[in-house]
Amino acid sequence: MRFGPDSKRLQFILTGALAVWCIAALTPHGARAGEDPTPRLGSEAPKWIDRHIVRELLELAETRRIDIVGLGDSNQLFNAHGWQDGWTYALGQRYPMYATPILGAGANNGIGLGMGVNDSPIMPPIGAPVEWAIFNNPLSGVDDTPYGFLTAVVQARPGLTCGMRLTLGSTAFPLSNFNADHKLRMHFSYTVGPIGALTFYPGIRQALGLTVIHAPISNFSNVDALVRDHIDYPAGVRNENDIEFNWFQGGSDALMGPFVGLYMRFEDIEQPTGFSNHTLYWTGGASARLCAVNLQAASDTHLIEYFRTVRELQPAEKKILIRIAFGGNDRTDSEPSVGPEAGLASNTPKGVSDNLVAIMNRIREIWQIAGWDEDELTFLLVGNHAKPVEPNGFGFRDAIADLARQTNHVAFVNLAELSNPLEMTINGWYYENGAHLTVEGYEAINTREVAALIDLPEDLNDDCVVDTSDLAILLGAYGILNPAEKNLSADFNFDGTVDTSDLGRLLSKFGVSCP
Asked: What domains does the chain contain, in order, with CATH numbers?
């Protein structure tokens, strides 16, 4: 540890620490947040509220697999990039990507990241019979991974480009954190039922490379159901051409539906650690209220199957971060809120908070219905980025921060504090009027966001400097033995107790400021 030339500084700190400890030893520790209105330990400051619960989750990517799911307005996937691309870029600087995002068989515009789906004119995301549409119905408004439907009247030859691709030669987004040379597994799902009449041969191919075709599959069954399957693609040094999964790669007969393809996802089965980053919801002009309404309208079956697909490649103990980013459109939405305090004007801070609670409650409800452990979930609420001319109504950020303080397993990050309009303008991070960002802007802001969430965990009160306030918080928790407590921020090494190891780590960073 280095404290400068005055060696008495350490003595002063430790003396003060002892005094704080003596006071803290006489003070009972509070209950977990969510059980009473008391803010959680280390979450009192108005900046990155309780970011430590997010750090704990993200740092697990060093030793296991985790998944992130984003919900937002047009910024979530603007021009096929947005926060989706920016977060994958930022996390990719730290951890490997163990699998691609989940895509729907009916999507045609890709999802950024140098990967996407091929045009699928014969499989639009509309028209499927209700027995099959229930598994993933884009008409609910949650349409970012829509099914693809092949009608009974379509006749086409197999081999059509209809599926998903990894664009290995892309300069738009280097897939350096997804190792396509490893053994790959394409996971896909489709519906079967009494009306099924199609035999198909899905496959994976690379131009001037290897082609692997699955054994013939029938979508006929006596009962309607969803089926999950996969194709393995051997390891090898790839050329720069795309690796493509096609639903109809092989066979010679004309395609005759009905047929519904659902989800697609490439996995690096040699990579046991890292992250995978998805988008569940993005809609241009959407407010938090509209997102909540659409989630409430989506069937339980739809959302369960989506999140089941998110969870299925993780180990037995699942860890999911839900990132919710609204605020740019809420000021123009005066409709009544739809959360526990339904009826508030959605263009007010309280209305926005109520709608965000509705989003989180709907996701928690899905976990309850599916019988999953709600402790798998951590939520991150996001304050919108700074704009060149900030319109009225952005007092929402403070309301969102307050909501995060009072709610268990919820953190907050304010993107407006990570840059300013002058810097963003000079760097060319704004796209047109500043409502959206350029690719470089999303990557830069999200890199800072991830750094703010992960780096300098010793800053316990989130005021961007490690000082006596943080020391007081640590000593107030000193000696706590509770391995099950997930929000014990001062337990830096996650060994279940705040002890001398944690104290030494904080003192080693004393005086250091946030990056």
From this structure: 64-96+275-455 (3.40.50.1110), 103-271 (2.60.120)
